[in-house]
Each structure stands twice: as structure tokens, then as C-alpha cells.
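Key idea: predict the complex, not the pieces.
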Amino acid sequence: MCIVKSNEHIGDRNVTPLSESEPAAGDTRSRPTMRHVAALAGVGVKTVSRVINGEPNVSAATIEKVNAAARKLDYQPDLHAGNLRRADGRTRTLGLLVGSVDNPFAGAVHRAVEDAAADRGVAVFASSLDDDPAREQEAVAAFLRRRVDGLILTTVSESQAYLAPELRRGTPVVFVDREPAGLTSDSVVSDNADGAALATRHLLEHGHRRLAYLGDRAGIQTARERRRGFLEELGRAGVATRDLPVVEGLHDEATAREATLALFAGDQPPTAIFSSQNLVTIGVIRALRELGRHHDTALVGFDDVPLGDLLDPGITVVAQHPQEIGRLAAERVFARLDGDEAPALRTVVPTTLIVRGSGELPPKAER
Amino acid sequence: MCIVKSNEHIGDRNVTPLSESEPAAGDTRSRPTMRHVAALAGVGVKTVSRVINGEPNVSAATIEKVNAAARKLDYQPDLHAGNLRRADGRTRTLGLLVGSVDNPFAGAVHRAVEDAAADRGVAVFASSLDDDPAREQEAVAAFLRRRVDGLILTTVSESQAYLAPELRRGTPVVFVDREPAGLTSDSVVSDNADGAALATRHLLEHGHRRLAYLGDRAGIQTARERRRGFLEELGRAGVATRDLPVVEGLHDEATAREATLALFAGDQPPTAIFSSQNLVTIGVIRALRELGRHHDTALVGFDDVPLGDLLDPGITVVAQHPQEIGRLAAERVFARLDGDEAPALRTVVPTTLIVRGSGELPPKAER
DNA sequence: TGTCCTCCTGACAACGATGTCAAAGGTAGG
DNA sequence: CCTACCTTTGACATCGTTGTCAGGAGGACA
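Result:
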């Protein structure tokens, strides 16, 4: 280390060669920087910075000169370069991880998040997960390397403990749809067990006792909750669940359709079906139509189905409110960014039963 | 170390105090930088940089030391800081602008783009437009301030000439769904006129002569193309178009429903309808059902309708292929980034007629 | 006229990384 | 033993911007 007190030689300070030539303002092929704008406007870069950022104490004449130069060069400030030095270090960027952006539920969440973000000049990275734990960690790492201000995550891996250091550093992380494991942080979820119970009660009230559960993989937390809600409601109603068909591991239309067909190939087909997910519901509908049983087998699905009201019968569902989930998640992230230090908050968004016909069909035997 | 080039005054150059203390490695609340990792590993920052980026000429022992330190600190490199200096200046980021991320067409495009991007370690910003020209420019500016490597845009404003300087700087811009105006650049679009003609021909072949066109606002380029395809096909068939109802300006279910009801309140209701868009198709379906005319009025929609095959009648549509559009758009962007200097390319993705019932209903009078 | 204050302005360091370059150490060949 | 060369390493400048700070201009006041 070489610290010297220089009082004497004012001479050779400032030896920095600096790029001799003024930045060429006319070159249209290279991206203009503040220095180009400053050179064209005949002011210092810091003054340009002040004008671009609307800082006070710049004369009207200077503001106009700078703006004219910026317009002429089609100058756009480099947000990331600024962030490097800026006090708050915010990139005005959010990372959103969903099952798949090509999926109505995720689309609605995304849209709500985007609306909240756009109001604040924040851009949103969206990434799809496809239920692949490896993708989850890669996507999160990709977000973090880009220094997003906050994360809104649908997760699928066993544990999110890997996020603990990031959380300690103050990055807000909000989990949507599914709750985190191995970590405590804000979450916004549907009331899965309650919604499933609601659907089940609805079917019980219409006289069904032989109910079937068709659901997603048990590894998914929401699927487990829905299954629990289904079974517990039956328990409360005093219906023996031992012999009722509980099929899990369905994750698309094809597998759900096959499972339904198999159910009706057995000797005791159900009089009512609770399907725990969007795509499963659609698979069930297809199977029931093929079997010609869609008018005598009751069906309530979890999560709404597009055009469910135009089908015959209309599809009764327990609807989630993805828009609301997205809105609340964004609200949570921004509250944290604004300094909210409260303990992790779990926000539960209630579900809504939408009656359309398929859930009100009476049991076949009683007809 | 104090290396000075000037031979005379070793004195007062290089007074940089430099942070005296080694960066505190233990502080878990601040984000670690390369200097932290370097200090912990006992090497220089440039060596850390080499290890992180997999550059050659680092000894195995050093690599291990650095990786251990990085792991211990949960270090994530700052991609944007690196880009500032990096030779290629790539942020490994793409900007995608669509009508609304909460919309099946956009979702499919988005997903295809994301898949292509993820393969290359590129993250995608997605933003919604809502047919608002002001939003278009704001969103593009937000992308550019973040220095995206390329843009994939659905546009709505009169002219995209404002992008010319950016294009000159070499930023790849690919337009999807709608072609640009006032600017020449790559585009990937459906064959709108051809698809509309296909739908129209289909209805003509089933004996209809009194066709109605229900479409989106004429300000939207694709809507104009579809209208043109409809009218031209009628012209080719020698059907007088003068008295046929051509309704425009519809952009959601409600307006489409009302327009349909109005059509049937007139004295010469159509025997067949061509609806030029997703939401319009659904509005028409609702109106026809209310009127009880869904089994005697033929309908072909442009763009697929979710669960269209499960409705009664099934909805015949001219389907677009958004996934393919997204895939090709991403391919174009990456080709440009990889140095493709060919003139702007217009890629047309053909449409497909999907026959499901509603388009094959014969004219009522002939029944 | 001198002092103080406010307004405006620009030089400079710093943010976290990478490109350049030179130095240190080792090995091989003469 | 010297030279040439390769491998490994780190000091330093730099990318485009903002924070800090100091200096100059101008007005108000004594």
C-alpha cells in the first residue's frame, strides 16, 4: 500500500489521458451514452444525469439543451449501469416463476403481477417450471444473477432452504399457489382443503355417497391438501372412505381420461367425481362423454374450466382466484421492498363454488 | 505495491485509499461480490472471475479454493456488472410484448419463446399491451433501458418508426402476429387473409350465401386482413357482398354478443357467421344459444377456442399456431444475434381448418 | 465593499465485473 | 547456465452511470 500525502506537486495530478476525441455524436451505429449526450449538449455528464433523472437545481435552459441532445441521439439510459452506483441498488425488476406461462392460471397470476409492477415502473421476468425441481433452482439462480428486486415463486422441489441466504440479504420472496418447505417466507395460496371440502359437501348434499377422487401427484402440496379436504369432509359426514376410489398421479388430460375409463370399467363405478385440477377435470369430461355418462355422473372440478358454462351440462367447479392471488403476491413483495419487516405472512384466498349443472346431477340409482 | 510510471514524482499519484479492511466474509446480510470471494479464497479478483467464467489457465487447486469460497458465501455473479465490460455486451435477456399475458394465444407464443431462450441461458421479460399504443412505446422503452438483446413484439400503434435507430444499432426486432408499419424488420405472422378465405370458402361450400362478418377494430392490421380475405373469397365465388352484414369494432365477448343479437333482430339474419377472433367467437356462441339458433346457424371462428370440441355443436375454427409463431420468432432473433445479416424476413405460418360441426350446418332455408 | 447564501455546474471516485498486460515461476532446449 | 516459452497470477483501467464534493456565479444584506 502506498499512501502519500501530496501537498506539494499540484503539477501532475489528473494525468488520466481520457479519450481525447469528443465522442462522435453522429455515429448512428453505436449506442449513445451520457457522455455522447453531454458532449452534444456542451455540458458535463453529471448534468445530463441530473436532467435524465429529474433532479432539481438545473436551469431551464440547460434542461432543454440536454433533452434536445438526448432526443436527437435517441438516448436511453442504461438502467443497470445506473443501479451499480445508485443508493438503493434496485433494478426495478421482478422474477416470477410459474408452472407454465402457457396455462390460464399462471397467465392470470402473471397478468395481475405485471399490472402491479407496471404501476411502479418494474419489469417482470417470467419463467416456466414444468414441475421440474432442477428448473426451479436454475430459474431462481438466473433471476438472482440478474439481481431482481423480488421473487414470486411457484415451487416444486422438496425444499426451498437454498433460498435462506438470499432471504437474509433482504430479497423479498413470496410463494404463490404452493407454500414453501424448509423456509419461512410470505405466501399467498388458495384454501385448497377448504375448497375441496366445499366441493365434496356439495356432492354429498345432492345425495351422493359413492364419490371418487381424481387428483394430481401426491408430491404436490396443493394436491395433498385437496385430497385431505375431500377425505376429511367425507369423514365429517360419516361416509366410509375405505372403499372409495382415490386415484392420484394424474397430471394431464390423457391420464385423467384413462383413469376415469378404468373407474367405470370396475364393478362399482362412482355416482360422483371430484377432480382436483383443471386438466384432470377436462380429461374426466372427455371420458364421461365417451361413456355417455356425462348426464348421470355428477362432477365438481377444482379450478375453473374455460367455457365451462357453455358445456352440457355446465361444469360445476370450485374456482380459484388467480388474479387475486397475483395481486396480493405483488402487493406483498412491494410492501417488503417498502420496508415492511413484519413476520412472514400467509395469505389465504378463499375459493368459490360455481354451480353450473354437472355438480347437481342426482345419483343415478335414485332416479 | 506501488508501481508508478512517471519517473519523477513517486509522491502523489495513486492516493486511492482503497478499502483498508478486507471485505468482511462473515457478514451474511450484505451481498457478496467477487472481492469477497477473492479475499476468502486468498486470490485476486481476476482469478475469481476466471474460475466463475470457466476460463482456462487456472490451476486445479485454485479452482477448488475459489469454488469453495463462492459456495460458502452463496455467491452469485452480477450479470449486469459483467456486461458493462464484457466484449459482446449481451445481457442474455429478451423482451416480449404481447396483447396480454393472460390470453391463450400470447401464452403459447410466450412459452415457445421461453423454451428457445432457456436453452441459451436467456431470460425473457414479458409485458402486456392491451391494445394501448402508449403502453407499446413505454414497454419497449423499458426493455431498451434494460438493454435486452432482442425484441419480439406484438404492436398496436400506427407506426413503429420510433424503433429505426435501435434497429440501426443492431438490436434484432421481430414482429409477431402483426406486421410493423413505417419500418422494415423480421416478422412472423399467420396467414390472416388466407385463413379467412379458407373459413369463408368452407361456409360457401356448405351452401351458405348470406354470410355475416363479425370482427375486431379495423385499426388492427390482422382484423383488416381477415376482413379482406372474407370479402375477396366471396368476390371470387361471385357472391354479392354489398348487402352482407360486416360488423367491425368488436373486441370482447359482450360487444360481440350484442352485435349478434342485433343481427338477428334485423329482417334478414345471416345463415352463417364468420367471426374473426377468439373472444368474438365466444360472444357469438352465447348470442346464438340465447336465441336458440346455434343448431341452425353455421359458425366458423378465426383462432381456436378452448374446449371448442366439447361444445354442442363443436366449434369449427381456422386455428392459428401460436406455439409455432413463437418458436420461429425466437429462432429469428437468435439467428440475428448469431450474425445473420440477411434482409428482413417475413415468415408466414399457415392456418388450419378444424372441422367440428358448427361450420358444417346447412343453411336453414334449405333444411 | 465584503460576507453569506443559494443556485448551478462539473471533476472525480465508486459500483461489480472483465479485458489487457506484465510479472513470477517453471520447464525445455541449446 | 542462459534463453525462450508457457502457465499461472494479479494490478489496473474500463464499462455507463450516480454520489460526493468543491467551486463559480449571482443576489441579498449589512
